[in-house]
Amino acid sequence: MNSSLSLFNLMHPDILADPYPFYHRLQTEAPIHWDPYVKAWVCTSYTEVAAALRDPRLSTERLLPSEALASLGLQDMIPIYAVLERQLLFIDHSDHTRLRALMNRAFTARRAEEMRSYIQRIVDQLLDTVESRGSMDVVRDLAYPLPITIIAELLGVPVEDREQLKKWSDDYASVLGSFQSIPDNLASVLQSVSEMGAYFDAIILRRRQEPRDDLISALIAAQETDNQISQAELIKNCILLLAAGHETTTNLIANGIYTLLRFPEQKDRFLTDPTIVASAIEEMLRYESPAQYTSRKALTDLEIGGQLIRQRQVVILIMGAANRDPARFPDPDHFDISRHDNKHLAFGYAAHFCLGAALARVEGQVAIQTVAQRFPLLRMDLQLPTWRENVNVRGLASFHVRVDSSAARGAQ
């Protein structure tokens, strides 16, 4: 295979900042191909990615066993994989159905709508803080603190721990973007995984003694009533909910505001037509998908896009490419907040559709609309935004904007 088509090219800073020309090249030259560098099949077309996401012959239980990791020289990853192996992202069938049913109650569309006024209060408080400064880092000052506050509230962990929670979550996310290789910050990841386990173990112990109206207490009740969730599953999925519960939303908000500012005519439409907000959020998710790919393992031999996938081979499904596929989305590189028939794959598809999608949508709607209304003259700072060094979790590390306080007051 031509090495210029390998997914390892995504790690180049220029491609990391804008992977879409690379994705289009894959779609044109090799829409489904074996990548020997990542030891997996790579799929980039919308039709094939969507079909694969719902194909029961492709399993999410794709983590390598300990002996396989050791044989590949990845033995240092064994403690990390031990945490991942019972998380919702990596289980199928009855186990997935059982655990997801327990957690669904906290993430329904109705519950998300009920939280809208609470989300609005937090957004207002965060923006009150930055208005007097005349500038803000969208990631640090809004896109991160909002969703981590919400997921902490839902789980029942102290919001004041959010800086520590961010450190742990960033390390966790680096594993999800490493193509089954050893992340550069391995020592930090190992420490974070250990500390997160101890942190949730202590909180679970306190909730057993003093239950509250939060998700951890509800999961404990399910465990004690009819053993629907084991202690190991409880701890491991609390780690997942903490990290996944804010990562997508953080990146949706920051990427969304950044994209609006890059397309002034779309920003103007967003400002003048409040009925377009929900549609705009969907286009932001399509245009800059917070999660760029997922993977599956073949349970049997099967064919995808004319290629024979052998049993136990891994298939990497690039949702970020599928969402820019010209065969599915007309003029896919144009950002259009009124785009119709926008069935993107940013939240996945089928049984593993993102658990927190409804909540992420409401948080994104409230945050981005409030920023636009309060700061209609918001503009990018001279300091260029920087992207996180993660090929899967697509988000900005920092994004500085200028806030025109006088314009904000005049708009109120």
UniProtKB/TrEMBL annotation:
Keyword DNA-binding assigned: no
One GO MF term: monooxygenase activity
Classification via InterPro entries: Cyt_P450 (IPR001128), Cyt_P450_B (IPR002397), Cyt_P450_sf (IPR036396)
Pfam families, per database record: p450 (PF00067)
Keyword Magnesium annotated: no
Keyword set, alphabetical order: Heme, Iron, Metal-binding, Monooxygenase, Oxidoreductase
Recorded superkingdom: Bacteria
Gene3D superfamilies named in the record: Cytochrome P450
Entry's family note: Belongs to the cytochrome P450 family.
Name of the protein in question: Cytochrome P450
